[in-house]
Amino acid sequence: MKKGDLHMTKLLNTLNNDCILLDDEEYNLLISEYNDIIENVEE
């Protein structure tokens, strides 16, 4: 498991715990922004 995967798991758990309902577009935007952050951290 990469470090980014662990962060992603924490992010998804947080979303699930807060019962936030996102539509696919919002979700994809959130994930793409999150992936950009992870890529910057790993560089």
Write a short abstract of this structure.
The protein has 43 residues and is mainly alpha-helical. It is 79% helix and 0% strand.
Class by helix and strand content?
mainly alpha
Work out the strand percent: under 5%
In the predicted model, the low-confidence regions spanning at least 5 consecutive residues are none
The first-to-last residue Cα distance is 17 Å
Give the topology string: H per helix, E per strand: HH
What is the count of distinct domains? 1
Give the overall pLDDT as a whole number.
Answer: 76
* Overall morphology: flat
Topology:
Layout: H1 3-17, H2 24-42
How would you describe what is shown here?
- This protein is mainly α and 43 residues long.
- The protein has one domain (3-42).
- It is 79% helix and 0% strand.
- The longest helix has 19 residues, at 24-42.
- The two termini are 17 Å apart.
Question: Main attributes?
Answer:
43 residues; mainly alpha
